[in-house]
Amino acid sequence: MRSAICRSDADSIRIHGLDLTTDIIGKVDLGQMAFLEIWGRLPTPEENAVFNALVVSLVEHGLTPSVLAARLTYLGAPDSLQAAVAAGLSGLGTVFVGSIEGAARMLQEAKAADATEDQIPALAREIVARFKAEKRIIPGLGHPIHKQVDPRTGRLLSIAAENGFRGRHVQLLEAVAAEAERSLDRHLPINVSGAIGAIASELGMDWRVCRGIGLIARTIGLVAHLLEEIRSPLARELWLRTEHEAQPPE
Amino acid sequence: MRSAICRSDADSIRIHGLDLTTDIIGKVDLGQMAFLEIWGRLPTPEENAVFNALVVSLVEHGLTPSVLAARLTYLGAPDSLQAAVAAGLSGLGTVFVGSIEGAARMLQEAKAADATEDQIPALAREIVARFKAEKRIIPGLGHPIHKQVDPRTGRLLSIAAENGFRGRHVQLLEAVAAEAERSLDRHLPINVSGAIGAIASELGMDWRVCRGIGLIARTIGLVAHLLEEIRSPLARELWLRTEHEAQPPE
Amino acid sequence: MRSAICRSDADSIRIHGLDLTTDIIGKVDLGQMAFLEIWGRLPTPEENAVFNALVVSLVEHGLTPSVLAARLTYLGAPDSLQAAVAAGLSGLGTVFVGSIEGAARMLQEAKAADATEDQIPALAREIVARFKAEKRIIPGLGHPIHKQVDPRTGRLLSIAAENGFRGRHVQLLEAVAAEAERSLDRHLPINVSGAIGAIASELGMDWRVCRGIGLIARTIGLVAHLLEEIRSPLARELWLRTEHEAQPPE
Amino acid sequence: MRSAICRSDADSIRIHGLDLTTDIIGKVDLGQMAFLEIWGRLPTPEENAVFNALVVSLVEHGLTPSVLAARLTYLGAPDSLQAAVAAGLSGLGTVFVGSIEGAARMLQEAKAADATEDQIPALAREIVARFKAEKRIIPGLGHPIHKQVDPRTGRLLSIAAENGFRGRHVQLLEAVAAEAERSLDRHLPINVSGAIGAIASELGMDWRVCRGIGLIARTIGLVAHLLEEIRSPLARELWLRTEHEAQPPE
């Protein structure tokens, strides 16, 4: 058994080789720290810009099911803030933030990184044909609310491009979106999960932990919502109303 | 029912009044975003420096019980990264990161913010006397491993002071530590949880969500450990060894 | 490290000394099994009757905050039923089922088991005086909805009495309720949590795991609600309505 | 929004039409109650025997990863028993108890219930061929420890048969096991998850909640292990040893 991330003794804590007290605290900001922790090294300025943009875009999205679950949990266990946050994270599965993972997986399993630019259109056709044959939804495309264009997608893709991260994964996702639109005859813009999955793949993040970007972001959001719940509660009202309305008739 | 944090419609997402696409992504980094989300406004440069230092200091502390719980959970549910992170957070209660909350509560309930500098020593004597009478451990002092001086504490307190956040909460905690040492006749240095609780109180953070700083930080750490678990697993070995060793005799 | 509960090898699994295949499956029912697992031996018929009554009384209480949290979690992670149940359990803290623990703790810390019947009234006066002085709510008394008499309380106390479990803990709780009513001049009937805490204490259950009775019971309830959520969903509607209603004005 | 499970008001609580106080407490035992809660009616004696056998078989299996995660969580949050149980349940995913779901899904999606006995062998061949073609493991067969015969499987299948529940789902699973053994040329006995998945299908349980049988059972086991952890702790030792052993070299 071996973990290479941290070495600590009575005098010091070293994280990926950097001393927490002298090299990190006061010198490395939160975005850089998250990159260091996950990638094992500090980011370049370009990586830093792109990674911060990805996480920041997922921190807050209103009263999501995850936020409501956390607030309802806090109502019953106000002395266990961690249990409320844990409950909120538990629902960040395949349906919501988990779709980032689906897009990253699709692009990484297609070995986009090893392809030439010329090979991208053929890869995209293969992917769309396979998902169509298996009657599966292509991850990272379309959005129930932002039907026309997800406002965040273009911004994230621009920041990636400006910083040198419009590589094969992004190109492949764009090609998949175009091919899907033609093949399925529906407007299927890249959504924010798709953009994040593609850009995280450009940063070299294993698809199996891409859901983690959402977890890091949403933990921040959940703490903010629990603070609001303390000051201006809504969970009790939500509970009592729902219980009253949904009871079976006598 | 009302939540003031976020307003979203088909065209835009506004968070505490800022437009996510045009004002936040690419302009606000992760530390600033966390501050915005929780405080409802962007931080000053001084607040930003101090807040980043607090969170960064808690991201990683090796193979903690929380990390082991997350890795063992991942072993059984590798397709639910969020469940493994949630399991890891569930143990961040009163014993570990939760002690931040204890220190912040003690300082905030003493109404340190309303005291003059002259009143601090008397407040400290009251606090120590009360904890002593109730046979309770004073939160934020002492450390099982870093017996002499926690290397992180001095660094965090320096950064706070340099940025104008050595206010009454920090002064009161220092006075409590000195008084406790005299009264209990034991070396009781301020530990990292105490320093964070005091500095978070300087930043105006309600003690009831101070545990959240640890949750935000450790979620990052848990994602990194789960990535390591995928590449270089230890949970299965830990399980099999423990099961084998701890079985009752036949 | 030693765990005495279970011994398993390639051929057999022994639980508290009984062989799972030959002694337990098909011979021991679920209530007896839970008793065996927790107490380390099979129950007497009287213990069995009382223990089953306790657990059964907590299985279902409608669309509680815990049930809503589980259903909202399932909406985002339908392939992780365990995460939805875990989210639902996370809120069973001090406010709801956790109050069982408070009552059991109060009775066990008063060393009711060691008292004679004559000493009970004095113990009750001490307890009520102490909670009054500390301005704390006495656990196990009163109920927000069932103001007059909780219909379950009398039934549980009868079953306990019929089976020989109206011992000192139950007597002390009754004396505390009477004393509280006189001293605080309010109608404070024993509620179902109080009755369960007292009866679990009669069964010899450590107060630190009494919350577990509620966890065992509610896990059953959560599974049933998630099945209903699959067949007749309400979480999506609850989310969309709440999000729409609670948005801040433009 | 409508939930048909429970109706409660100030005077009574009705669960699937039965009054909790007069019809359930003291009359319905825990196994029957779980059946009532999930199926919406009380079980027949035969259903009761079979259902109890299924749940009882999963309560305890030693120091599993789930138990270790719960004990490590309790170490950090001893005042939140529910968080420790929730952490333990979080890992009951696809790898361990979740495999029940896989077996039940395979049998229910094959529409075993609608088949005649003559059609079973052909259904089994189709299933094995499909899993082989897709290079997927057939759920419910084989076991890492109990290589020859899982001691629980035969017992559960006997109890099912004795009570009239050796129907098409059980027959199909047996046919799949025989076909898999021939086709893959490996000994692949039905394991306990497979038997439970098949028998739960006989009882009419939707595969999407079959994982719930394991959750109900293991919650009991987790409470018992947390009681043992309080009396005879091992989590701290497990943590300190692992941290010490697995640190990277200086």
Automatic annotation (TrEMBL), chains A, B, C, D:
This protein's pathway reads:
Carbohydrate metabolism; tricarboxylic acid cycle; isocitrate from oxaloacetate: step 1/2
Q: Which domain of life is it from?
A: Bacteria
Its EC number is 2.3.3.16
SUPFAM superfamilies per the UniProt record, alphabetical: Citrate synthase
Alphabetically ordered keywords of this record: Lyase, Transferase
Q: Which family does it belong to?
A: Belongs to the citrate synthase family.
**Which NCBIfam families does the entry mention?**
PRK06224.1-5 (NF004868)
Protein name stated in the entry:
citrate synthase (unknown stereospecificity)
List the source organism. Azospirillum oleiclasticum
